[in-house]
Amino acid sequence: MEIKFSRTNGEIDTLIDQLIEKVGVHHPYIIREMILSALKAGQDTDYLADLKLMRTTMKEMRYTNKIFEPYRSRRKVTIFGSARTAPDRPIYKKCVEFSRLLANHDYMVITGGGGGIMQAGNEGAGEENSFAVNIQLPFEQSTNQVMAKSKRSLIYKYFFNRKVAFLKEADAIALFPGGFGTMDEAMEAITLLQTGKNPPVPIVLVDDDDGGCGEEYWGKWFEFCRDILLTKGLISGEDFGLFTITRSAEEAVEVIHNFYKVYHSSRYVDNLLVIRLNKELTEAQINILENEFAEILLPGTHIKAITALEQEKDQPDLWELPRLTIEFNRRSYGLLNSFIRQINSF
């Protein structure tokens, strides 16, 4: 029989309803669609490898949510960098200091769970303030000694599930020097912010004093972006507002901490970008924002101060926060970061 998401499946709908009631679940209308999706996949696909991929993805994402759920109220910083960085390297020690400062500010850290910079991140924050989001590899990636016995250590089969965990749970991203994997994570994170597929978060690129080879690591990367990508018109100047480069662990923490000084979070409700705040802004401050950032608004629209919208009931923990709404042009994400920095200056 053909299965549909509408309630036109007769006995199948009744059986699913009975199963959901028997088991007891949160948000049963969502679980119903997940069950129907699994049944439809079983009808549509007879290639076993594809079904195994879907099954494992669902299992890995379910377990991810289970591990992170108790810590939903604490902000987290994902740290990327080379697995090959030795503990005696200055950049390793800088990462230890960076993550220690984060923990002192009540942040938790998320790393890839391996050695090098990943171990440095877990070491500085301590096991009690850390997650290890590891991947099955035939070499180079066993769980580091800090997180080997932690209940907050996960091991993924698929890179794409691991990538979701890194970014979905992160309130900030810190990148230390690394190889192809670090470059991949840097470009992906910036791309997701540049295209609006990830909510605004601070991205901090923490440089070694000399890159370990007589030259700055992120400094050279910046020159490539400026001299090649920007010059050829492949990115815009405002895209450089999506990240900050620093040599200082203290400054990196300050950039992250200040991002949430007044700004809390944001989401879309229909065509409105709702910006949640830690305190109300005055009418004069809103006027400053509107005058200085008219470019990011759709023509003829204005910034408005509001209370929570009905559609935001799915996030009850944020219900009491004051809000601004803007009709954002959904293009100027670098300027949106600057807009947030201006909010945080009030």
Give me the secondary-structure topology:
Blueprint: H1 11-23, H2 28-44, H3 48-68, E1 76-80, H4 90-104, E2 108-111, H5 117-125, E3 130-135, E4 153-156, H6 159-168, E5 172-175, H7 180-194, E6 203-206, H8 217-230, E7 244-246, H9 249-259, E8 263-269, E9 272-277, H10 283-292, E10 304-306, E11 323-326, H11 333-344
Parallel strand pairs: 1-2, 1-5, 2-3, 3-4, 5-6, 6-7
Antiparallel strand pairs: 8-9, 9-11, 10-11
Helix pairs in contact: 1-2, 4-5, 4-9
User: What's the N-to-C terminus distance?
Assistant: 60 Å
Mean pLDDT over the full residue set: 94
CATH class of the largest domain: Alpha Beta
Q: State the low-pLDDT regions, or none.
A: none
For the largest beta-sheet, the strand count, sense and barrel status come to: 7 strands, parallel
Sheet with the most strands: spatial strand order: 4-3-2-1-5-6-7
SSE class: alpha/beta
Q: Give the number of helices.
A: 11
Order of helices and strands: HHHEHEHEEHEHEHEHEEHEEH
- CATH fold name of the largest domain, please? Rossmann fold
Please state the second-level CATH architecture of the largest domain: 3-Layer(aba) Sandwich
Q: In percent, how much strand structure appears in the residues?
A: 5-15%
- Residues in helices, as a percent range: 40-55%
Count of DSSP strands: 11
Number of domains: 3
Rough outline: globular
- Nearest-angstrom radius of gyration? 22 Å
